Amino acid sequence: MNKIVPISLLFFFLGTVSIFAQVKKDTVLVVKDTTALLEIDPLTPAKAAFYSAILPGLGQTYNKKYWKIPLVYGAIGTSLYFYLDSNKKYHSYRDEYKRRLEGYGVGTGGKYDYLDDSRLIAGQKFYQRNRDLSALFVVGFYVLNIIDANVDAALIQFNVNERLSLRPEIYPSDVTFKPNVGLTFNYNF
What we know:
Elements: H1 4-19, H2 44-54, H3 58-62, H4 69-101, H5 117-156, E1 164-172, E2 179-187
Antiparallel strand pairs: 1-2
């Protein structure tokens, strides 16, 4: 029995040593493909803005954001429609008022015989204001189209990958094992 204890202790220690042994791993270095990275062209935003200035929506086509083209034409077209409509009605009210100033009174076959002079003046002011606002919207949407193409072309060149990320993370609590929500900021080298 004396010999069994040391032999069993010897096998026990030899067995535990092999449990804690580590296997050497060979690390392989991989060279990343640098040709796949997007080359930065500093003239791209200027080109996109120039194209949008020539023809609205052309800068969005240059940026390959085709879904924005109907929005550009819808905004500019709607504003232009209201400009033309208000301009036509303004001139109609103005012509009727000028006709009355020439001596043709109410009931002489005018388009707005049912309105008095103060209503004709009010109608002129109303449609002139709407015409001017619509012209402002046409110019505003045109400039916004150019700015959008420029900014979009500039933002395309930013490097967005997983090396720098900010994302929510759900992890269990160490004490209660209930899920906790946190925000992690990761930067990988």
